[in-house]
Amino acid sequence: MNISIIGGGAWGTTLAQALSDNGNDVLIRDINPNFVKKINEEHLHPFFDVVIPKNIKATLNLKDAVSYSDVLILCVPTKAMRSVLHEINTIINTKKLFVNVSKGIEPETSYRVSQIVNDEINAEYIDGYVCLSGPSHAEELILRKVTFLVAASESKEKREYIQRIFSNDKYLRVYTSNDVIGVETGGAIKNAIAIVSGIASGMGLGENARAGLISRGIKEIATIVVSLGGKMETAYGLSGIGDLIVTASSMNSRNFQCGLKIGKGESIKDAEESIVQSVEGIRAIKAGYEIGIKYNIELPIINMAYLVVTNQIDVKDGLQKLLARDLKEEKYC
Ligand SMILES: NC(=O)c1ccc[n+]([C@@H]2O[C@H](COP(=O)([O-])OP(=O)(O)OC[C@H]3O[C@@H](n4cnc5c(N)ncnc54)[C@H](O)[C@@H]3O)[C@@H](O)[C@H]2O)c1
Known about the structure:
By secondary structure, the protein is an alpha/beta fold. The chain has helices at 10-21, 33-42, 62-68, 78-91, 113-120, 138-141, 156-166, 180-202, 207-228, 232-235, 238-247, 254-263, 268-273, 281-295, 300-309, 315-323, and strands at residues 2-6, 25-29, 56-59, 71-74, 96-100, 126-133, 147-152, 172-177. It folds into two domains: 2-178, NAD(P)-binding Rossmann-like Domain (Rossmann fold); 181-323, N-(1-d-carboxylethyl)-l-norvaline Dehydrogenase, domain 2. Helix 4 runs parallel beside helix 5 (113-120). Nicotinamide-adenine-dinucleotide binds next to helix 1 and helix 4.
């Protein structure tokens, strides 16, 4: 089967390999001519020194990628998602299944990617929506290391379809969920907590502090998921706590690395710009903060992170203020 991937960076090209291993032909569209050349001429992953199968091709031409398949995998940074979908809508002429594998929420609107798809693509061209998420470093999956993901869709048929085309019995196992809100939200907001975890490490705090912030962070993720209409149990599954574990304590995570630099005293701008690939966490902090205001929910860690990344408070003062909050009972919603 033919499958199109829009965005051939670290994750998009890694998923292309899994799809190719499962017997599919893949066409990747990316805006970076060097990536396209590397994939087509050298059969190399653009970021990792890994040879990828020859039936993965790449193009700069969006129209070619959109017409190649009825399944469009969206894998651009979420800050580019709306403009990419807008462009797709000008050239699409048959129904497509939209599969989002990017992780983010639009801070200006608090929209998840499913909502941006509905906003930008004419309804007659949408043959369903699936969000594929979960604990996953591209650096590991590209080496075919065992990975577990979750495919969420309101349609049982579509989520099971995506489960089947990505799963194999060697290294990739995909579960399904009907909770699109929960899976999308968990995958996005965990990046905010990963930045906080990195900040804590950068400040020289120990494992105790980091584990505490991650645990209280998952509580904030669950609170947001439930406020937006998702299920609490989803926040404690692969796309929530699972992804938080992998992101909030690993140097493979760009969000953790970005937080680490902030915690060590680098400016927010320098920390963000020093990481070549997309860092979703700063936008996730802003989105979480906006959601907190909109739904009137208590998100002490995310709110303090917001003050830090918008340069309204220094990290040390931020930590001090978190510690000085009224003492509480430990409650998980
Ligand atoms: N890297 C991972 O391990 C991983 C795992 C799971 C999910 N994700 C998510 O996948 C998304 C992409 O991450 P990534 O690691 O592949 O980032 P990346 O920066 O490596 O790749 C993004 C790609 O999108 C391309 N791009 C940017 N703007 C574009 C546009 N307007 N049109 C077409 N292509 C465009 C870039 O050229 C780049 O190749 C993020 O939301 C991330 O959170 C990443």
